[in-house]
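Appendix B, example 12.
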Amino acid sequence: MQRARCARQAVDRWAWLITAARTQLRLARPPLAKDLHSILALARCSEEKPS
């Protein structure tokens, strides 16, 4: 019975760890997407200018 309890606790810890990691990635993604968008916009603007 002790092993089953330890296994359940380990599963709970892993579930929380994965949830926390996924949350951190989701929170970090919008600024990265915004930066990439601005970089691509600058690249497009420089291509449109006549040389």
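The mean pLDDT is 79. The longest helix spans residues 2-48.
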